[in-house]
Amino acid sequence: MIKKSCENFVFSYAPGKAILVGEHAVVYGAQAIAVPLDLGVRVAILPLDANGPIIKGIGSFCPSEALVWSIEQGPANIKLALQYLIENFGEKIKKIAILVDGSLPKGFGLGSSAAFSVALMRAIFNYFSISINNQMLIEHISALETIFHGAPSGIDHTVVLNSQVLGFKKKKSQSLSWPIYCKRPLKLVVGLVGPHEGTKNAVQKLRDRKRQHEKIYERIFGSLDELAIAMETSLKEGSLGAVGEFMNMAHGYLSALGVSTGELDHLCAIAKERGALGAKLTGAGGGGAVIALAENNEMEIMTAFRACGFISFTTSVVNKVDEHL
Ligand code: PMV
Predict the structure, then answer these.
(1) Tens digit of each residue's pLDDT (9 = 90 or more) over 267-279
(2) Distance CA 132, CA 141 (A)
(3) Among the listed residues 14, 20, 82, 2, the one whose alpha carbon sits nearest the alpha carbon of residue 251
(4) Strands 96-102 and 54-57
(5) Which of 142, 203, 207 to mutate to test the pocket of ligand 1 (most atoms within 8 A of CB)?
(6) Ligand 1 atom index nearest CA of 199
(7) What value does the mean pLDDT of the chain take?
(8) pLDDT for 19-67, tens place per residue?
């Protein structure tokens, strides 16, 4: 039972993310650009009488009101994550309940697992009064993301952790990230086509396809790298027309890589018809979400997505440009 009078409880929040350019290519060393969103995941930790730990999802994180996950019951990756926490933080972890809530849909390539991992680890450090050592925090978050995604590039949790528009590049086991100060605010319309097939799966299938035609795939990754470099300049200059154009091109390359679907292509076409500056799938693909860059026409684009039967909402990019002007 979750204790009713809980003087000891903590809350934590982390934002979701979208990738503007470079998903998949980033796994092979190309530059990518990711942005934090004004939607996210909240975690609360409360003391628990019974033997835990347990995770209870509410809101968008709970398909059923009665859903409670534990080491014995729940999806395999959640059981592994709880096991990881016990192994790394000891028996005291068995005395906590983790409540998860948020405004971010789960499993659509919008960074829900990274936001959950970041919010959870910050909450655990806080709850047990462990002083936050950034390196330690990153190691635990990477370990959780590996449980959820296989061998991720690290772009998701890096942008979520920093809550800043970032350039990101991975070189062997090292990664490099840097802030990008966008001159103009970015308004995105998100269209959901259904949960994606899983990042681990999508990355593995692309790896298998690449093995058949190494050079051709390498050239596409090289082009996506060039697009990311050009997009970085456009973001800094506030040339949103060019940013949108590069998003359209990135979607074309992602289609060529085989990670788009008819529905994702269809949503991109609708967005462009309705005057979006650009549109592309975001994240692993094979389902998931499309992001469209709007310029004072977000309601029109969102209404068009909804009229075709897709769940749609608007979101803004969290941009720290003002602090740096
Ligand atoms: O987990 P998603 O859907 O946000 O995809 C992450 C981006 C990939 O490049 C496909 C995988 C990775 O680890 O970088």
Answers:
(1) 999 999 999 999 9
(2) 13
(3) 20
(4) parallel
(5) 203
(6) 1
(7) 92
(8) 999 999 999 999 999 999 999 999 999 999 878 888 988 765 555 555 7
**Kind plus residue range of the DSSP H or E element containing 258:** none
E strand or H helix that includes residue 116: helix 112-127
Alpha carbon distance 247, 268 (integer Å): 10
- Helices 155-162, 134-149: inter-axial angle, 10-degree rounding: 140
Strand, helix or coil for residue 178:
strand
CA 273, chain centre distance (Å): 27
- Cα–ligand 1 centroid distance for 75 (angstroms): 20
DSSP state, residue 157: H
- Nearest C-alpha neighbor of 50 from the set 68, 32, 67: 68
Q: In this predicted structure, what is the pLDDT of residue 49?
A: 81
The encoded tokens of residue 19 equal 């990738």
Q: Would you say the pTM of this structure is higher than 0.90?
A: yes
In whole angstroms, give the CA distance from residue 282 to residue 280. Answer: 6
Residue list, ligand 1 pocket, CB within 6 Å: 23-24, 26-27, 109, 111, 149, 152-153, 155-156, 196, 199, 203, 283-284
Place of tokens 């740096």: 324
CA distance 297 to 320: 23
Q: What is the mean pLDDT of residues 280-289?
A: 96
Residue with tokens 């995604």: 149
End-to-end CA distance of the chain: 50
Q: Return the amino acid letter for 311.
A: I
